[in-house]
Every structure is written in structure tokens, then in C-alpha cells.
Amino acid sequence: MKKKLNRYISRKSTLKRRGFACIGLSNPQDGVNIGHALRAALCFDVRMIILENPSKNINIKKLLTDPSKTYRHIPVITTSNILDIVPTDCEIIGVELDPKSIDLRKFDHPERGCYIFGPENGSINEILLKKCSSVVSIPTTVSLNLGMTVNITMYDRLLKTPQL
Fold first, then answer.
1. For residue 91, is it within any domain?
2. Res. 2: pLDDT tops 60
3. Which of 38, 101, 115, 139 has the least CB density, counted as fewest CB within 10 Å?
């Protein structure tokens, strides 16, 4: 019995790293930006995408800026409230231009994180911001578009995630 148990204990994990990331887009309005965000999610191994109140004229299956058809590889869930879909034991991180936010370059990403991005024409609402364990921002002179913000944030997570 001990020999069998040791075989399982000494087995190497096939996983390259622990944890996961998901992204939530709050009130996205532009299909081009959503497509770029979905493509970034696929590129950087995001495990789930949450769309909160997306514009009614957006068809996820026909986004020209998502040629890989991300919805075929990653669950894309539409909801009226992101907080209803955030996975268990997952830290919520707001990505927002805010004077009190943490500079992304100095941020330590959690093992399990759900990154919330605000709409193209506004900010993450106060109720959602209060639920965030951290709020980070990318130090730029002007705001970035949604797709670029998702790309930079997920790339930063990739760079800082320890490999097993």
C-alpha cells in the first residue's frame, strides 16, 4: 500500500502553473473592443469570460476582431451582474484609472483572479468597485481602449506568474 501511495505522491503535475484568471467586461458597448478582449483572453490562457450587460447588437459568434472564435475555446457567459458569476474563492481585481489604484507594475497578481474592466465610455460602477480586493491601473497619460487594457493586464499576469 505504501508503495502505491508513494507513486501518487511523487507524481509530477502536468500543470505548468497553479490558479487561473477570468475576465469580466462591465457594460461593453463596442464589438471591436470585445473581440480584441476575447482574443487576448485566448492568447493569455484566461479560463472564463463574463460579459455584464453587453450592447444588444453584439453577436459574439461574428466578431471580426476575434478570428479564433474564442467562444469555442473559453466559456463566455452573459449576465446582468458580474458578481453572480465570479468563481468561488477568486479575488476580484478592478482595472480602472483611479487615483487610489495600485500601479500594475507593482501589483502581485493573486493565484485565482477575476479581472473586471469597465466600459469604453465610463468607469466600473461603485458597487462593483467596493467588491474588488484590489484596484489596479496601467500608468498612461491617457486612457487605453478596452482590448489593449485586457492585453496589457493579462500579459503582466503571465510575466509575474511563477512556473511550477
1. yes
2. no
3. 139
